[in-house]
Specification:
This protein has 11 helices and 4 strands, in the order H-H-H-H-E-E-H-E-E-H-H-H-H-H-H. By secondary structure, it is mostly helical. It starts with 10 loop residues before the first helix and ends in a 10-residue tail after the last helix.
């Protein structure tokens, strides 16, 4: 759930290059759709990130099919556009979840519903396959037009702590949980977007599972920090430093930063409770 800058793309040039790369009659059909498509580009830019009620372009059924074809049947300009968006360092980690590598493009407004935006770079979000599949063609809450997901290119989420990790050590097992809560200073609208985003992408369970997998690889480092002196203060300090490093790189609500911060504050974990990680 983080902001990433828009790719440096001339979307008018990309449209014209893809149209030129198509065979007739699709090339001519794309050119015929040009005014309506470019009008949609302008309206998207004016409305973003509040795109729930964006009006559809006045395209014929043939033009709609051609615009989807422009994305799904790749030409050299479309391949270049995809690479431009996916290859940036800032886009390497999925901005929807912060867990996985990006390898797909999500249409923030689905191309089935908004074919005019199928090759519009601000509507193309680099993401992981799992988030892409879960998001699917969902856009807004039915009957309200309230957006269900954060738009990584336009939503600058306030740097306020809203993601929480809950730690419990019970019956020789480490129990993890993640939730979000609205911090002071965050608008109800922004929190509503975050809450549905968190729920629909199943981030609580995904963070829990990946957190346990990650911590299994940290056992030896924690054991060394604890040492023969059983120095729980040093363990907590190491965990807190790692949390700070993650915050500096990814922000206050990066899931691993939140996890390490919670572990550093958990006396039972720092006083040898980490031994249960050996079995992971």
């Amino acid at each position: 759930m983080r902001y990433i800058t828009l790719p440096d793309v001339d979307d008018i040039e990309v449209f014209d290059m893809i149209a030129a790369a198509k065979y007739r009659p699709r090339s001519a059909q794309m050119i015929g759709a040009r005014p309506a498509v470019f009008d949609a580009y302008g309206r998207y830019g004016e409305a973003a990130p509040d795109l729930g009620g964006l009006a559809h372009a006045a395209l014929t059924d043939v033009q709609k099919e051609v615009m989807r074809h422009a994305y799904t049947v790749e030409t050299a300009p479309m391949i270049a556009l995809r690479s431009n968006i996916l290859d940036g360092i800032a886009a390497a980690k999925c901005p929807f979840c912060g867990i996985n590598e990006t390898s797909t493009l999500d249409h923030y407004l689905p191309k089935e519903q908004y074919p005019e935006l199928s090759i519009f770079s601000p509507n193309l979000v680099p993401c992981c396959p799992q988030c892409n599949t879960r998001k699917n063609d969902l856009v807004v809450e039915e009957n309200t037009n309230v957006r269900l997901f954060i738009h990584p290119h336009f939503d600058e989420v306030p740097n306020l702590r809203f993601l929480k990790a809950e730690i419990d050590v019970k019956d020789g097992a480490l129990l993890l949980g993640f939730r979000i809560s609205r911090p002071v200073g965050m608008s109800p609208a922004m929190f509503g977007h975050l809450r549905s985003h968190f729920k629909l992408l199943n981030l609580s369970d995904r963070y829990r599972r990946m957190g346990l997998e990650h911590l299994g690889g940290q056992y030896r480092a924690l054991k060394r920090a604890y040492g023969a002196a059983e120095d729980s203060v040093r363990v907590a300090s190491e965990l807190a430093t790692t949390a700070d490093d993650f915050v500096e790189r990814y922000g206050e609500n990066y899931w691993l930063a939140v996890l390490y911060r919670a572990l550093a504050a958990h006396n039972g974990f720092c006083r040898g409770g980490f031994e249960m990680l050996k079995a992971l």
